[in-house]
Amino acid sequence: MDVVEVVPTFEQYAFTFGGVAPLRRVTPGTALRLWSDDAFCGALQKTTDLSSEKVDLRFVNPQTGPFHVEGAEPGDTLALHFVAMEPARDWGASAAIPFFGGLTSTDRTATLQDPLPDTTWIYELDRAANTVTFAAQHTDLQIALPVEPMLGTVGVAPPGGEVRSSLVPERFGGNMDTPQMRPGATCFLGVNVEGALFSVGDGHYRQGEGEACGTAVEGAMTTTLIVELVKGGAPLWPRLEDDTHWMTVGSSRPLEDAWRIGQVELVRWFGELYGLHPMDAYQLLSQISEVPIANVVDANYSAVVKARKSLLPRATAYGGLHDDLRRRAATLL
Amino acid sequence: MDVVEVVPTFEQYAFTFGGVAPLRRVTPGTALRLWSDDAFCGALQKTTDLSSEKVDLRFVNPQTGPFHVEGAEPGDTLALHFVAMEPARDWGASAAIPFFGGLTSTDRTATLQDPLPDTTWIYELDRAANTVTFAAQHTDLQIALPVEPMLGTVGVAPPGGEVRSSLVPERFGGNMDTPQMRPGATCFLGVNVEGALFSVGDGHYRQGEGEACGTAVEGAMTTTLIVELVKGGAPLWPRLEDDTHWMTVGSSRPLEDAWRIGQVELVRWFGELYGLHPMDAYQLLSQISEVPIANVVDANYSAVVKARKSLLPRATAYGGLHDDLRRRAATLL
Amino acid sequence: MDVVEVVPTFEQYAFTFGGVAPLRRVTPGTALRLWSDDAFCGALQKTTDLSSEKVDLRFVNPQTGPFHVEGAEPGDTLALHFVAMEPARDWGASAAIPFFGGLTSTDRTATLQDPLPDTTWIYELDRAANTVTFAAQHTDLQIALPVEPMLGTVGVAPPGGEVRSSLVPERFGGNMDTPQMRPGATCFLGVNVEGALFSVGDGHYRQGEGEACGTAVEGAMTTTLIVELVKGGAPLWPRLEDDTHWMTVGSSRPLEDAWRIGQVELVRWFGELYGLHPMDAYQLLSQISEVPIANVVDANYSAVVKARKSLLPRATAYGGLHDDLRRRAATLL
Amino acid sequence: MDVVEVVPTFEQYAFTFGGVAPLRRVTPGTALRLWSDDAFCGALQKTTDLSSEKVDLRFVNPQTGPFHVEGAEPGDTLALHFVAMEPARDWGASAAIPFFGGLTSTDRTATLQDPLPDTTWIYELDRAANTVTFAAQHTDLQIALPVEPMLGTVGVAPPGGEVRSSLVPERFGGNMDTPQMRPGATCFLGVNVEGALFSVGDGHYRQGEGEACGTAVEGAMTTTLIVELVKGGAPLWPRLEDDTHWMTVGSSRPLEDAWRIGQVELVRWFGELYGLHPMDAYQLLSQISEVPIANVVDANYSAVVKARKSLLPRATAYGGLHDDLRRRAATLL
C-alpha cells in the first residue's frame, strides 16, 4: 500500500472549512502522510513569545487540505482512519491567550474584568522517553508527561454554502479538540459537498479533557491516515470508532446541548447497531455511557459520548470498515 | 474496629439536606454500615409499575441520616471514606419519568411537547456473576452488565439556614450522581453547620456518566463507610480522592459552569498539593485533566474534574488521610 | 379600610423563604403597610463604605415577614396587590460587589481573573423632584433619574420543606428583581404551605432591566399592599397583572430556560383566559409578547413575559380580582 | 434625493452573508427601495401549506443584496437608516416548523420527543386598518393586530473569510430578529470586507419579543433605506439608534452571553458618548437599561440592551449621523 506524502507550504494552509480550493484529489483507499503546522503556525517558540505579540488570531489552526475525495457526494459517509501521529518538532507550545480559554471571560462570556496574564509555556519533547515536559513559570516544578498525540481538528466542508473558521467544531466535525481523535480511531463524517473536502490540523502532543486554558501542547504533527468512502449512510453528527468504543461528538452551546446532541446521535447509532428502539437505547446508554468532555473553550463546546464494546454484543458499523482499516493500517507500520 | 449498623425505618427517611434532626450522633473515626432505600422508596418492582402511578415525587432520594459528627464546626472538613457498597435487594429499577431526564423537555427546559412514554425497566441482579441485566422492552435484547455500585447522593447540611431537596447537587455535595462515589474513594466536604449533618442515599448498582434518562439502576444499598473529621481546611466544593486520582465536583447550570467550578476547585487544590501558582496549575491541568460528566438531569448539573496521580509527583492531602483510611478500611473487609 | 403597619426590628428580619416562624397572621383582605430595610441592611451609607468591608453576605435581602395568611392552603393562590411604595430613606446605595453581578465572573461562572474594583455609589433622593442622582466616581457626570420604586423580592415559602435564601428567585417567587413589581401590580403566587408565609423586601428606588451590576438603587421602602386569597387555582410560576398587561415570571439558568418557563406559563394562562389551544396561544404570543429581562445576576436568572391587554379581547383572571383590588386600593390613597 | 429601486429575481436571492457576488454597487448617501421576499420564499400561502412539505429549509430567509458600498473598508462603520417598510403582499404567514422554535426541542436542544404538530397560520392584511389578523386554528378566536413592520435580517459579510447562513445572527448583524429594526432606526455595523456587502430580508409585519415559535408574521416587504458610511469607528457588535434610544444587540448562546455582549457593548458606547469610565457606565446602565429579548430561536439567541435618551444628557454618535439621516429621510416621504 502506497502512502502519499503531503507537506503544505504556508501559502497552502487553509484556515476555513469550505471556501478553499482542494489541495489535492484522492481516491478512496488512499493512505496519506500529512504534515500539519501547530495551531500558532509555529509562532510560539520560547516562553517570551507572547500570543498577543506573536500570534495573528486570523491565522490559527492552519489546516492541511482540503482533499477532494473522488466520488464523494452529499449524503455519503467519509471515513478517516488514523494510523499514526508523530510529533514533527522537538517542542510543543501552550498559551493563556488573553480573553480566550475556559477559566477566563471571553468575547462571548463578556465581562469588564482584566484578562489573565498572557503566558506561554514550552514543552520540550524527549523522543526517547516519549514525553513532553511541563515547566512551571512561577516555581521550579517540572513534570515529564507521556506524549499522547491527537488532532484537534478534523472536518469536511459544511453544507448550505457556509464557510467556517478552523476554530469551529460543528456538525461537519472541525475543531472538536477531543483526545479520542488519536491513532487507532476511525472518524465517520457526513459528506455535505461533492468531494467532501476534508482537512486536518491542530496537532496536540497531549491534551486534557476540556482543554481548559484553550490550548493543548500544540505541535506540528505528521499524521498517517487512510481515506475511505461509504456511499450513503451519512451520520448527522461525527462518529468515532476504535477497538474499544463506539463514540459520537456533539458540539454546541451551552455544554448540555453538546451533550444532548452526542447522546441522541449514539441513541440513533444504537438503533442501527442493535436494532434497539430509541427508548431502550436511551435506557441502556443511561447505564453504560462514558462522557468525557472534549472542549469548553471553542466557538462551540464539544462533548464525547462513548459506549464500551466489551459490555455489548458484537456488532459492526459500516460493514465492518473499522476492522478492515485496522488490518490495512497494520501493513503500513 | 467496630461497625455501627443503621437501618432506618421509612418514617426516619430524610428527604432534604438540612432541616432534619440528626438520626444519630457519631464520633470521628466511627465506621458505619448504612442501609439506604432506592430513589423510588422501592415503589418500582416490575416493568408495569409506572413512575407516574407509583412514585410520589415529593418522596424520592430518601436519605439515611443525617448524622451529627461530634466536634464538627463550620469551616471544618468532613471526610467520608467508602469501604464497601453492596446491593441490598436482588433487583434494581430504572425509569423514564415524564418530563424528567436529559433527552426530554423538563419543568425547566420547558416546551409544549408531549412527554416520552412513561417506562420502567427492571434489572435482575445475579450475585454470583455480579451483574445486573438490561432487558429491552421493545425487542428481545438482554445484556448482563457488571455491577459497579455507587451512591448518587452524599451531602451535608447547607449553609445560611437553607434546606435543600435530596434531588439537588450543590456546594454541600448532595445528589451529584457521579460513578466516582464508589468503594475506595474518600469524599471531602466543607462543614457548614455544627455536627455537619451528613447523609447518604440514592444507591446505584451501576450508572453511565450523565445519567441520561435521569435514573440509574436504582437499588437499595448497604454502604460501609468511615467518618473522619479534619479541623479547618473546608474545601469550597466537594473533593474526592481515591488511589489513582485527585477529583473535584462542580454542580450548577449551565453545564459549563459546573465544569468551571470543578476546574477552578482543582486549580485551588493543586496550589495546596504542589505549591503551584494558579496560572501554572491552570496550564498543567489543561494537559492532564480527565472530565467525566456526572449528571445532566438534576436540579443542577454536575461535572467531575480529575487528575491522575501517576502523572504527578507524590503529594498528600489532609495529612495523608486517604491512605490512612484505606488502611483502616482493610481491617473491616 | 384599615391598614396594619409593620416595622420589623433587625432581629425580626428574615433571610430565607421558609424556615422562619410567621411574624404575624393576617386575614385575606387585609391592607398592610410594611417597612423593609435595604438589601445591605443599611450598611452602605457613603461611597467609602465598601461592600467587602461592610456587608455580611449571609445577611442580605432582609425580608419583612413572613406573614401567615389565614385559610391559605397548598394549591391556593395568594394575591398581593401593591398599592404604594415610598422610599423610606433619603438615599439609595448600589455596589459592584466582588465576584457578584452580570459583567464579572462569579462563584458559578468561575474564572481565575481578579474581581472588578469594589465600588459603592450613593444616590441622593430629591423628594420634591422625585429623583435619585447618579454620581460618577471617575468623572464629574451627575444625572438625576426618576424614582420608579419596586420590590426586588416577593415570595412565599417553598414546597417540599425546602428553605431558600432571600437571594433566590424561583417558582415560589423570591428575588425576581423585576421592575414590574411596582405599585399598581397584582402578584399571584401558588401557595405551598399552610398560611402561604409570604414576605417582601429588597426595595429598589429604581432598577434597569437585567440589574446588570447585581444591585439596583437599593433603599429602605414603605410598601402598602392588600393581601387576598383565591381558593385553588395555584399558578405553576408567578403571574403578574396590572392595568395594561398579563405577565409571568420564569426563573432558572441558563437564561433561555427562564424565558421558556415564563413563555409556557403565559401559554397556559392564555388557555384559561381565552380558551386557546396551546398551539394557538404559542402562535399568538409569538406575535405579541414583550420580554423584558428581569435579572441576570441572581442564583437563578429571571425573565418576564408580557402580553398587552389592549391588543386582546377583554378577559378577567381570578374572577376580576385585580380590578377589584385596584378599586379597594383607591380608597387607601 | 433619488431612490434606487431593486426587486431581485428568485435567482438573485442570497441565502448567506458573505460568499455571494454583489447584486449592485452603491455610493454612500444612496437611498434604496428594496423588495424582499418572505422567509419562506412565499411558499406558505394558506393554512394547509405545511412547512415540512412546502419549505426547503436550505432556502429560507432570502436576502436582497448584497450591496457593495463604494469606499467601505474593514474597520469602517456602515450606517443603514430605515426610512419606511411597507408590506408587499396582502397576507403574512407564520408556522410551527417541526423541531424549530423556542418551546420545542431542536437539533441543538435535542430530545427524543415527537415534534409539535406542523401548523401554519395565515394573517390577512387590512391595509386600511393597518392590521393583520390572527385566526386561531382550534377555536374561533380572531384578533386584529396592528402592523408593526420590521426586518428580521440586516447584515454585512463576516470577517475571516467566513460565510454564514442567513439564519444566523452574529457580530456582523444577520438574523437578529429584533422588533427594534424598524422605520426610524439607524443600524451601525462594523465593516469586515471591502464594500461591506450588506443585505436585508426576512420582513415581519409584526413580531413579539423572543419570536417564540420561531417565525413572525412573515411577509414580503418593501424597505426604503439610506446607506451611509463612516470611516473607521467600527463597533464590535451591532448598534442601533433611534430618536428615543441608544441600543446594542448581542447574539450568542446561552442567552445570558447574548445579554453580556450587548451590555458590554453599551458600556463601551457610553464611554464614547459620555466619557464614562467602564465602572461608572456599568453602574449607570444597571439602573436605566431596558433589555427586550429579540429571539430565543435562531442559531444564536439575541438580546437588545437599550438606554433611553431622555434620561441622559444630550450626546451624539458618529457626528450626529442619525439626526442627519432623519432629516434626509423626511425628504423621501
Automatic annotation (TrEMBL), chains A, B, C, D:
InterPro entries: FmdA_AmdA. Gene3D superfamilies: Acetamidase/Formamidase-like domains. It holds the Pfam family FmdA_AmdA. It comes from the Bacteria. Coiled coil: none annotated. One of its GO terms (molecular function) is hydrolase activity, acting on carbon-nitrogen (but not peptide) bonds, in linear amides. This is Acetamidase/formamidase. It comes from Geodermatophilus sabuli.
